[in-house]
Amino acid sequence: MSSKFDFSTTADEVAAEFAREIAGKNVLITGTSLGGIGLEAVRVIAKYASLVVITGYNAERLKLSEEAIKKESPTAQIRRLLLDLSSLAAVRKAAAEVNAYPEPLHVLINNAAAGQGPFKLTVDKLEHQMATDHFGPFLFTKLLAPKLLASASATYTPRVVFVASEAHAMGTGVNFTVLKNPDPAKYDLFEAYFQAKSANVLTAIELSRRSGGKINAYSLHPGVIFTNILQKEGSRDEMIKFGLLDENGQPIDKMFKWKTIPQGAATTVTAAFDPSLNDKPGSYLDNSTVANEAIAPHSSDPVNAQKLWAATEEIIGETFTF
Fold first, then answer.
1. Which of the following is catalytic: 101, 156, 187, 193?
2. Which of 38 and 236 is assigned the larger pLDDT?
3. Is residue 245 part of a domain?
4. How does DSSP classify residue 116?
5. What is the pTM of this model?
6. Which domain covers residue 125, as residue numbers?
7. Could you list the residue ranges forming a coiled coil in this record (predicted)?
8. pLDDT digits 0-9 by tens, 97-121
9. How far apart are CA 264 and CA 222, in angstroms?
10. Does 187 participate in catalysis according to the annotation?
11. pLDDT tens column, 258-297
């Protein structure tokens, strides 16, 4: 892993470093709306990759994202995919579309996340934040596994990246009772976020273990970044209450050191392409560096990882096979 990378490293710098690894790859990134780190990752990867599939649940906004990329890289191969991660049926529909593509898939980056807000159930009667951040991505990854496995070769192992957060360590880990039976009386929007991010870390560890070397999965902390998600009405108000944003909705430097969007997307690109990670499956990254010591015990516990996997398969009604 390059020691050149640190807190201030940008996604552009990482992509340039791994241009050879990105070349010829087909990559799918969820959550690519304007003003987010997902689109920044697309912007730098699209300069070198064969194909980048971008996703969103709003067709109009997705088109704007493609236009923004094409403006800078006119020859970039971008494909739009409508995907609503809060609906298992919508995830299945989107996955079927990807599986019909003629190309294999080398890298899947699960970047999309729900904004923090009041308790809400999805169409599948799941808590909205956990559905969007964990159940949807888990099912999507499961359904795209054959497409990922088709990209494997003697010299390449397909990758799955989960954009988690250091916030995974702020809570007590996944609450398996409310996972299956969401309860508005027990709901706390920050705790829900902490649990969803814990689930991301556990899933990366367990996916790497279960695949037996066929798929390498990683999770990461992108940094604290002033993205579009913090500017959504519900999230913005809660972040002001939390003390992360001031009364005008602007970042407060007291609690955290903030990253720019280009800095915030750097670790995602590292997790997707750094060849030195090949023998470190399941790792957690921070500042584009392996930081497994930063994983909270509840999110590195193999028993918890297996328990979450089994519970998730039961809830989505599908078994993950390789």
1. 187
2. 38
3. no
4. P
5. 0.93
6. 11-226+260-316
7. none
8. 999 999 999 999 999 998 778 899 9
9. 5
10. yes
11. 899 999 999 999 999 999 999 999 999 999 999 999 999 9
